[in-house]
Amino acid sequence: MTNVQRALVLAAFSALLAGCASNGSTAKKEEAKPAASAAAADAALTKNVQGALAKEDQLKGAKITVAATTDGAVTLGGETKNDWQKYLAGETAKKTAGVKSVKNSIKVPQ
């Protein structure tokens, strides 16, 4: 094998390795984008539901937590003073744009 042939084989092998390395990093970047986008949508939906609950005068003093997922499912937790507040919180969350379902896990003290 001549020096020219060795150089060509080495160059081809190097190009092959470089191509493999760049495909892996591109795939990781593409996977990270949907995860970041989903997290942003999740945070926005949570904030919107919290804002809607805060506007309800009848929910003042209630300690309600909101957890949202990317598919529009919202889980309410925490505690309200009575069953009416629990119901109102659930209905308010359902009416919030982007919410597809609500799991109302709010506790009412006995």
Automatic annotation (TrEMBL):
Q: Signal peptide: which range, if any?
A: 1-23
Q: Which UniProt keywords apply?
A: Signal
Concerning Pfam families, the annotation shows: BON
- BON domain: residues covered: 41-110
The answer to whether UniProt assigns keyword Disulfide bond to this entry is: no
Q: Which InterPro entries match?
A: BON_dom (IPR007055), Lipoprotein_DolP (IPR051686)
Keyword Aminoacyl-tRNA synthetase recorded = no
PANTHER family annotated for this entry?
Answer: BON DOMAIN-CONTAINING PROTEIN
Q: Know the name of this protein?
A: BON domain-containing protein
Q: Tell me the organism.
A: Oxalicibacterium solurbis
The opening ranks of the lineage are: Bacteria, Pseudomonadati, Pseudomonadota, Betaproteobacteria, Burkholderiales
